[in-house]
Design brief:
This protein is of the alpha/beta class. Helix content is about 20%, strand content about 20%. The protein is built from 6 helices and 19 strands. The strands form 4 sheets. The chain has an 8-stranded parallel sheet with strand order 1-2-3-4-5-6-7-8. The longest helix is centred in the last third of the chain and has 25 residues.
Length: about 425
């Protein structure tokens, strides 16, 4: 991160990237001195509430983040930057999105955790849009013009005030990752409380990781005269980019047992801060994340460590396990909504665990037509995973990989009705070697 003083002293001349978090209340005009080179600008975690009328002088700007500020209106001047590709105004106080603020060049727009009640129809003019993050607002409906966004792949509309599920979303040919829990229309099955585990029986030893919804730690569980090493997830309780933590917890409980899921042991009670939490089986240290989250360039697609490779047998084993888990979840009316390699844990033997239910959604299995469409939507996400696995395979002409390639093409068909269901995918993969 750079400093305002460096900028004012001219030390950043020629910079392509600028990140300033310095309790700013006004846009530093010195930024315009970088107009000939600046492509990435991050002014998050300040106290800004407006942008200058000549913001468009930043003609080369491609990525602009202005999250955790004080904006109440999405600035119209965003449309004056012709190359603007990614815009993030997460966690402001935005209530109004003027039609003029929608830059039609956008590929990725983040408006999570604001107070937006309505999106302008002009949002549908973003023909390049691949990723639209709207969770945690006050939207009562979506503009039907979004049907024109034929490249939209990831959409987050959780924790809004939508009274009806926008069925027309299911006609979008590339939509693969859709999260919609926490709305008035959302289906809420009865979730029975899971095995209670008193927090006083748990001794936290070290933090293993932190996600948007909570913190996972290693802990010692003392119960019935025994001692066990377990993993504990304590939910933060705030809305995330994917949805509400309570929906994640309920999905974890409802998912039940499967060899490809992390085993759930119990639900925490008597937490000293009254927080919700889950106790899970501790994943062996031999497991690692198969992929890394999408980059600015890849947008909706995962990236992988340089030089990473998989044998055909490992590719097929991972593909088979995830298909089986997805079939298991959809049989329970759960759409994972974040089917990605970065949410898959594997070891060197390709033993596979599917994790992170932060975006998971329940749907009504008795609504057969919609249930099928939602499953076929997630099948496209699975097709993207197959595409990634095939690209990592070190033996492309292997017979099993050739069959997997044909399956990938079916799963990624723009015509959802041509895609197989997860039960059919599992059946096809069961005999492939």
């Amino acid at each position: 991160m750079q400093t305002l003083k460096q900028l004012q002293n001219g030390e950043l001349k020629g910079a392509i990237s600028l990140k300033l978090s310095d309790n700013l209340s006004h846009f530093p005009v010195e930024i315009f001195e970088l107009a000939d080179t600046l492509e990435y600008l991050d002014l998050s975690f300040n106290n800004l509430n407006s942008l200058p009328p000549d913001f468009g002088r930043l003609q080369k700007l491609k990525i602009f983040f202005c999250s955790e500020n004080q904006f109440t209106v999405l600035p119209e001047v965003l449309s004056d930057c012709p190359l603007l590709d990614i815009v993030g105004f997460k966690s402001n106080r935005i209530e109004t999105v003027p039609s003029a603020s929608i830059n039609s060049n956008l590929r990725w727009l983040i408006l999570t955790n604001n107070r937006i009640t309505e999106l302008p129809a002009e949002t549908g003019n973003c023909s390049r849009m691949q990723k639209l993050m709207l969770a945690g607002n006050k939207l009562k409906e979506l503009p039907a013009s979004l049907t024109k966004c034929r490249n939209l792949e990831l959409l987050r509309i959780s924790a809004n005030q939508l009274n009806e599920f926008p069925e027309w979303l299911l006609s979008l040919p590339k939509l693969s990752w859709l999260a919609f829990s926490g709305n008035p229309f959302s289906y809420k099955p009865t979730v029975q409380p899971f095995t209670p585990i008193d927090s006083r029986q748990l001794e936290i030893s070290e933090m293993l990781g932190e996600g948007a919804s909570g913190i996972i730690s290693k802990a010692t569980w003392r119960h019935a005269g025994k001692t066990s090493e377990v993993a504990v997830k304590i939910f933060k309780g705030a809305v995330t980019s994917d949805g509400l933590p309570e929906d994640e917890m309920n999905a974890c409980i409802t998912a039940g047992n499967h060899d490809g899921l992390v085993e759930l042991i119990g639900q925490i009670t008597n937490h000293p801060e009254n927080k919700e939490g889950l106790v899970m089986k501790l994943i062996p240290e031999s497991f690692y994340n198969l992929g890394l989250p999408p980059s600015f360039v890849s947008c909706t697609r995962d990236v992988f460590k340089p030089g990473m490779g998989l044998t055909p047998a490992h590719v097929l084993k991972i593909a088979g396990t995830i298909a089986s888990v997805a079939e298991h979840l959809h049989n329970k009316g759960i759409m994972h909504s974040d089917l990605y390699a970065h949410n898959i844990l594997v070891d060197d033997e390709a033993n596979t665990l599917f994790s992170d239910f932060g975006a998971a959604c329940f749907y009504d299995l008795s609504d057969i037509e919609t249930a099928k469409k939602l499953e076929l939507l997630e099948v496209r996400a699975y097709g993207c995973l197959l595409d990634d696995l095939i690209s990592l395979c070190n033996e492309a002409e292997h017979p099993g990989i050739e069959k997997l390639t044909a399956l990938r093409d079916l799963c990624m068909s723009d015509n959802a009705l041509k895609r197989p269901l997860f039960s059919q995918i599992s059946s096809q993969l069961s005999g492939v070697k």
